[in-house]
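Project outcomes to date are best conveyed with an example. Our students and postdoctoral researchers have been running inverse folding experiments weekly, and each run begins with a structure described purely in tokens. The record below, which covers 411 residues, was selected by the lab manager from last quarter's runs and is presented without edits.
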């Protein structure tokens, strides 16, 4: 071992304790040399213990300061709603059906709920990682204000871990890991209005995980006459959803499949809470559309799709637009081939045969599967080319050809 700047310890100690010795060895026969050796060894041991103690103390202080800096409420932290104190400093989050028990200094599955000394905070508030203006057809919403531009935003985090996530770079990380904007709820609404957008969408990742941020934006948006749209996996507990609905105008829920085991393995969630979300949105008068991504080998079983469509019809969703979406290789399913066109067309036929009136196919080069047709006269009332509206022949919520009422919010 060497002291500071490489000075040999034996030289340093001999200067501090000037006991005479000769030669390079401490094993001489004289009493004086033996005495020096004993003192030297004892002091060397004490010196090593002291250095180790100081080093460990410094590391502990540094680690403690690091944790405090990360976990203490800060600029982008908001007290979490729907939390319950558990034993010790643990907290149970009741925002989504995971109902995570989060220990002190830890986060929930979503990576946006952090326990700081027994209190749960949301770290996704006022710090979106993605802000954009999209056509509303991109969400997709086909029966809600077609052709409108919608101010869209997201924060990092998600309560699902879908193997096929197309936005995994932002959904599977915590807010602290991303570059973020500084945009408070009032500023979001101001930005939307400044860009002449009448709608705000909570989208791209999972809005449930930034619930407090979404809630405050939605309330202020309504005060200013703007509409709000939820694009979600639907994995949210009943009470938070009910509290949000008065400030919500439209939603598209991603119904991943109709099998609980596939839900668990593909997404890390379960089916029933999503079905409950669909019912709640319908009961609360929120305009609803549903998306089902068909993944080869996972969600392309026609019997399962038939069972899903049958459930939708039996529960009053026959006039709810259903979007079958084509899968493309991504994230952890990069080895899976794109969905064959024939599979998508077969799914459309199954849905229509089950009684669903408005069925669309997305992510196909052939845009003919995204037109809206009147179920009575079968004429095309809304013609689309990608996200662009070519013709809109809906007048006062009715088919302009035969006068049949068409479900939706058209103006």
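After processing, the design step wrote out the following sequence:
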């Amino acid at each position: 071992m060497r002291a500071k700047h490489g000075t040999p310890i034996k030289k340093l100690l001999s200067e501090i304790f000037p006991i005479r010795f000769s030669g390079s060895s401490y094993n001489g026969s004289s009493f004086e040399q033996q005495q020096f050796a004993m003192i030297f060894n004892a002091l060397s041991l004490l010196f090593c213990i002291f250095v180790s103690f100081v080093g460990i103390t410094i590391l502990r202080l540094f680690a403690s300061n690091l944790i405090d800096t990360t976990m203490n409420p800060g600029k982008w932290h908001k007290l979490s709603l729907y939390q319950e104190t558990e034993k010790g400093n643990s907290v149970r989050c009741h925002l989504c059906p995971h109902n995570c028990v989060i220990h002190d200094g830890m986060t929930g599955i979503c990576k946006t709920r952090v326990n700081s000394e027994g209190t749960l905070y949301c770290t996704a508030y006022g710090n979106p990682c993605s802000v954009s203006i999209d056509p509303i057809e991109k969400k997709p919403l086909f029966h809600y204000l077609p052709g409108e531009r919608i101010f869209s935003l997201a924060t990092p985090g998600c309560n699902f871990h879908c193997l096929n996530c197309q936005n995994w770079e932002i959904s599977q990380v915590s807010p602290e890991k991303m570059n973020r904007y500084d945009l408070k709820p009032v500023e979001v609404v101001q930005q939307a209005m400044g860009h002449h957008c009448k709608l705000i969408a909570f989208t791209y990742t999972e809005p449930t995980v930034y619930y407090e941020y979404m809630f405050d934006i939605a309330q202020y948006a309504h005060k200013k006459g703007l509409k709000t749209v939820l694009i979600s996996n639907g994995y949210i507990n009943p009470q938070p959803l009910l509290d949000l609905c008065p400030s919500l105008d439209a939603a598209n829920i991603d119904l991943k499949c109709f099998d609980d085991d596939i839900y668990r393995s593909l997404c890390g969630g379960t089916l029933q809470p999503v079905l409950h979300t669909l019912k709640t949105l319908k009961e609360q008068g929120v305009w609803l559309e549903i998306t089902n991504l068909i993944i080869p080998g996972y969600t392309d079983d026609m019997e399962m799709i038939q069972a899903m469509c049958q459930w939708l019809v039996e529960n009053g969703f026959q006039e709810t637009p259903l979007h079958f979406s084509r899968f493309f290789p991504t994230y952890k399913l990069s080895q899976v081939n794109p969905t064959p066109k024939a599979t998508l067309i077969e799914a459309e036929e199954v849905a229509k045969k089950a009684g669903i009136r408005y069925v669309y196919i997305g992510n196909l080069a052939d845009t003919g599967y995204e037109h809206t047709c009147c179920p009575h006269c079968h004429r095309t009332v809304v013609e689309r080319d990608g996200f662009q509206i070519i013709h809109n022949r809906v007048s006062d919520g009715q088919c302009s050809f035969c006068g049949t009422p068409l479900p939706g919010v058209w103006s």
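Residues 171 and 205 are 5 Å apart (CA to CA). The two ends are 81 Å apart (CA to CA). The training component of this project remains on track.
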